[in-house]
Fold each of these.
Amino acid sequence: MRRIAARLTILFLLATVAGGWAALAAGVGFSGSVGLETTFTPIPPLSYNIESELSLGLRVADFGFSSKTAFDLVGFRSQELGVSVELGPVRMADTLLFDPYFSRNALCLDTSIISVTLGLDLILAYTDPDYSVGAVLELSSRVANEFSITTLTGFGAQDLVNLLEGVEAPFSHDLLSLFVHLATFYGPPPVLSVTIVPGLYFEEELVRLEVDTSGILLSSTTWLSWTGFEQEILEFGYRFEEPKIAFLTALTVDDTFAISALHFVLDAEIEGVVVSSWTTFSQPLVPPIPVVFSGQGFAVSFELLGARITTETDFDGSFLFERQLVAIEATVDPVAFSSLTAFDAGGFSGQWVTASVTFSGVALYTRAAFDSGGIGEVVFGFTFTF
């Protein structure tokens, strides 16, 4: 199987190169990017690891190609290859992943007709000790950016919400953008993908409805499996324009049709100051109380002396202080700087610092993370776009 995968990869690369040169020969302009990132990670007590990732992206008219290669002191770690083609309303994309051996091949087909999108993902993945095939069918429609419906049906595939960027409650995610933004300081975002399981049988269906009109916010996300109803998250709220303020309630119902979680979200912007908060009630371990207080968080963002300052304060289910985050972001062209400092009940718990400079299509950047025990990792990298 590995020999077959290697031959398919060689043919894939040859076809990609041939297609790219053919387009260039026809006089079609192109764009692309090249990047290299190196990560130094100490390994206590006296060792360390160095990992590098080389990325390449090319775009020629309606044809695109991407490549990511990772290796460390031990040797080759992973390779991801992607190619996409747009033919009118039809888009085709194929992604190959080796880590270090063949791990996944995903073929995606999408087409849009008026306001309706149809999609099909065919995925071949390694599921120890064999290979399995999964398929995901997508049907979605949006009307005037006010009403949308999305259905995802997985055969041999689970965790379909990862195709929606892992967002289980869309309006809560939007209103809590300050919390989401602070989470990006911790490093690169996780790679989200559906889980392939043995057997090409019906595994999961996700149905999402969204309504955003006249200030009214409504959404419903329902999970179904071959055994029936699994979970549903209901959101309902209202958004004012003047003053700019929004409030939302999210209700989670489990497979026993009992309320397992309740979330209250508030987001407001007054004179350039953005304030967001969430309050969560969840199902206790001991019934009969349906839900009890389980946590609360507050975030504030404002401009000060040309810098953007964002803070987050979290409390646990016992109403005790849990965490404090303080982020500072400043840009003085062509230099950008950001810093995130974290505190917990015991004091300082970590800091993440990023600096970058951009000129003539080249971006140089560095990131460092450390805590009370010392340096956690140091990253150096560059990206060149043309």
Amino acid sequence: MTLDVRWVFGLARSGSSITAYAAAAPWNLPVADEILGPWDRTGKPYNYPPAQAELVELFKQTNASLTPEVADRTRALLRQIADAKGADRIISKHPHLRFTPEEFHEQFPDDRGIWVIRNPLRRLASIHSRGWTSIVRPNHDLDFFREYAERWLALPDDRTLIFENLRRDPHAYFAKLYRAWEWNASQADIAKAVAYQQSNYHGKSGDIEPDHSPQTTRSDASKAVPEEAVYLYLNDPFMRRLFKKLGWSRRPGDYYPKPPTPLERLKNKLIPDRSEP
């Protein structure tokens, strides 16, 4: 039986998890969640075969290169995960900048991928709100994000998604995704993907956080981006062009808390602190 593999690419905290799991929902398909990531996911909650831990080590040894051996082992592992669910289709989620679209097509010519991009300042807000700052590279990920954005811009439009569009028009978002994957999806199938997205908040990979709403993400509620990062991005010529092209706000105050006005500071001084006994 031929295995039909489809991929979701996007940097960490860019919406790849909800995109992958919601896309799988209409048919209850398995999701291979970061099987090429830096973690051993043979334990709970993923319970992947021992070959996943071996693949991670091999991928590290190749300096994260998609060599023919890595590709062959990845394909074999995807088959194992799909067979365990009795499925002939599987979605592979890869939120890392580890191989290029060209390498992907060379090693997996029969697979189809979709590349998701998210406003980098919203992405940074998500990282900071969770305290995951150890994953942020120098210059607040500016150069790292630029490399991904350049790849994204070079791809055909029908292979790319903008994460912010998921909330603006989720039906169009998933319809475009399924077209990119060359999967036949009815309006009822798309509605099931949207229903999943609107009912589940994936805080990290497959972990669903019931206390948070998909309609208001933590990054939107918490303007946690350092002011320095905001101005670094908004003053960068490439980023300014990208923000304009994709309709992202270029107003600094949309990304970090505004300082209190003199009147607000005066009120705070005059109002007694009732937290003290």
Amino acid sequence: MEDLRKINSMQLYYLWRNLAWSLLCVGIIMGGVHILPFYMAPALSLFLCGVLYTMIWNNNGSKNGSCMLIVETMLYSLLGYTFVSIILVVIQVLGLYHFPNEIIFFNDPFLPSLILLPIALVVTAFTLFFKKSMPSYKQFRAQYGIERERGYFGLMINSETNLQLKNMVCVFAVLTAIVWYYYLNEYVSINQNGRDWYVFLWIVVIAVILDEIYFMMRYFNLYLDLQEHNEIITPEELQDITAHTYLRFYVICGEYVYINRNAFDRLNNKAGVFDTPFITKRTVNGIPTSDVKKIVERMTGKQDGELRFFYGRHLAGIDKHSLLRYFYFLDGDISDYQDMAEEGEWVHFNDVKRVYNTMPLKIATNALADLTRLSTIILTEKTYDEDGYRKNKIKSYKSTLTLADVRKSNIDFQDDKWLNIADFNSDTKFFKLKKFLRGASGKSSSQTYHKKY
């Protein structure tokens, strides 16, 4: 299972590229307005919006494992800047209010930093706190699963994306404070001088360049560190890599699941965690169900169980590697299965749930992700209908999860429908209004971008 820690080197490049292009757009807006006629400002920003949208569009459905959250954030920032700039001009043309010349793009000089930086700050802060509501995040989660389902890279990209967003919030906040303080306290509109252009233009451009250099150095050093620990796959190696299919089996008998309490979590390099002992790898791309059944029978030493598919994922950025999960249900009592072929013990599911709720870090990363997906889907289906409305109108009512529910369930756990309903349901604030708006745009509460494995 060592390959689950492997990271495609291009993924690190995409992490930097997406941030670099996004910040570069800010520099282009600043410099472009200084070079081009001021009235071309909306055209320039709309052109850059087209570039960013094309990047997002080309990435959708691709297999490079790139999350476009940062690019989407800058796209919305530029759209907001363009919209506000045009609205200000319209209001002034209609004679409703007279704004300072510096924020009207028909005037000379026009200072875009006064509008773009605060809007970028607001949009980036919104993304930081509500990133799960962003379309790019939903698209990436639908394609590769939640953070822990994406392997080692999933854990890293989540922390790095948060770092990038926090960095952008800080940069835009500092730059906004500088330009607006200078504009309100030092700037004289009668005569623009070199210091004015240094504050309104060059400080922004220099900050963008320094930020891009910092993250370039950060990801280069990260690449060297991962390479030193043999956790990098280069594009050349990726072309020649052999297809691998990883299998995880959860063996269940009644309300008991067979667990190794002292397993080793290879994703976090941590020992002494709860995990299934039935894990294996096959050097093939996909395995027929009949062969999967033979594998689990050989691993457990029990041939009378019921095999059921849970869900599967390709690893982000390493499409030839996939991880499949299965349930293997045994009839009778656990006393009939005390001679299992792998090291472990029968643990009551209530004990597993207790550890999950109180000490989740005691559970292996993949097992924690699988349990989270299982419980979210089962409990959501019990609580809400497919339109997101509560089946039981008593809000204090909470459903429970049992392994009997899992066995008798006909839910397609591969489908993200119930995960989407868990994120958006009648307990969500302004649910009816948001549902109406989604309906008007052709979406539903259970809409999913997920592609079948």
